[in-house]
Amino acid sequence: MGLFDFFKKDKENKEQQQALDEGLQKTKTSFFDQLSKAVAGRNTVDEAVLDDLETMLVHADVGIDTTVKVIERIEKRVARDKYVSTADLDLILREEIVALLDANSSATGSRAILDRPDSPGSPFVIMVVGVNGVGKTTTIGKLAHRFHSAGKKVVLGAADTFRAAAVDQLIIWGERVGVPVISHGMNTDPAAVAYDAVQKGVEMGADVVIIDTAGRLHNKVNLMNELSKIKRVMQKVIPGAPHEVLLVLDGSTGQNAYLQAQEFTKATDVSALAITKLDGTAKGGVVIGISAQLQVPVRYIGVGEKMTDLQLFDRTTFVNSLFKK
């Protein structure tokens, strides 16, 4: 890496850190307001403090099951260390949340595309799922921008053929980013679109093919059947495709996002999560809860409107930003 590249990378990192800090501001404000109330007038972490801390984490949309795990971890530390002051609670809470996220972390999958050689034989195929309105198609556009900016060849497949707006939106994103979009229009066979997109990716030596899918069908059985069919036809071109099933969730919906995640994990094998719209909510704690409860890694988070505001999720960076005053 030359000196110019080093300074360019350093600038990008600082800009991403600033975007993350600003995107989590509403969550941080709410989080620390409640944490301050939990420890007000107290010197040691006792049962009363832990009760208030438990309530605070639930209100932050961390989720009940995950909150219980965090509290149990802190209880063990208090029992081991005998005396823990409330002044230490920030650091302990930060360490335990990072440790909890560490159990579900993964540096593989689509985030590794940026590190691998161009065109290593066949494209890496990502199938993107999620209900309408969560920012699924926008996330695909931002992902395409991320890979394309890194010099990767990208193909998009507009297989959400139930909504004309989804097809048109993806085509617009393809034009903005400068990548081809395979589309058969509305009310066409989604599996046929996916097949042609993967075939196109193979023909042009693409590094990644990203397939959009319908956000909602008539019922869960239909959804399961449709996603299974899309997988089968892609595997006729590339055995093992898709290599990643990325579920997009709207972070601003709090625990409703977890309920959506449960339904999609029943319908298909979700291997990674992208959590969007964190900049517009105080419910950023849902990132912690969903990852822990589903035991699926969070791959990306959305912290703003710009194309660069879809960031790779780093558990330590995220938690440090959350606790930054």
TrEMBL record:
EC code(s) of this entry: 3.6.5.4
Pfam (any one): SRP54_N
InterPro entries referenced in this protein's UniProt entry, alphabetically: AAA+_ATPase, P-loop_NTPase, Signal_recog_particl_SRP54_hlx, SR_rcpt_FtsY, SRP/SRP_N, SRP54_GTPase_dom, SRP54_N_sf
Domain SRP54-type proteins GTP-binding: 297-310
Gene3D superfamilies: P-loop containing nucleotide triphosphate hydrolases, Signal recognition particle SRP54, nucleotide-binding domain
Chemical reaction(s) catalysed: GTP + H2O = GDP + phosphate + H(+)
Main location per the UniProt record: membrane
Membrane topology: Peripheral membrane protein
Residues that bind GTP: 130-137, 212-216, 276-279
UniProt KW keywords: Cell membrane, Cytoplasm, GTP-binding, Hydrolase, Membrane, Nucleotide-binding, Receptor
Domain of life: Bacteria
Entries under PROSITE patterns matching the protein: SRP54 (PS00300)
Subcellular location field: Cell membrane; Cytoplasm
Membrane recorded as keyword: yes
EC class of the enzyme, as a word: hydrolase
Assembly information from the UniProt record: Part of the signal recognition particle protein translocation system, which is composed of SRP and FtsY.
Protein family membership: Belongs to the GTP-binding SRP family. FtsY subfamily.
PANTHER family on file: SIGNAL RECOGNITION PARTICLE RECEPTOR SUBUNIT ALPHA
Job of this protein: Involved in targeting and insertion of nascent membrane proteins into the cytoplasmic membrane. Acts as a receptor for the complex formed by the signal recognition particle (SRP) and the ribosome-nascent chain (RNC).
Name by which UniProt lists this protein: Signal recognition particle receptor FtsY
Organism the protein comes from: Hymenobacter terrestris
Biological classification of the source: Bacteria, Pseudomonadati, Bacteroidota, Cytophagia, Cytophagales
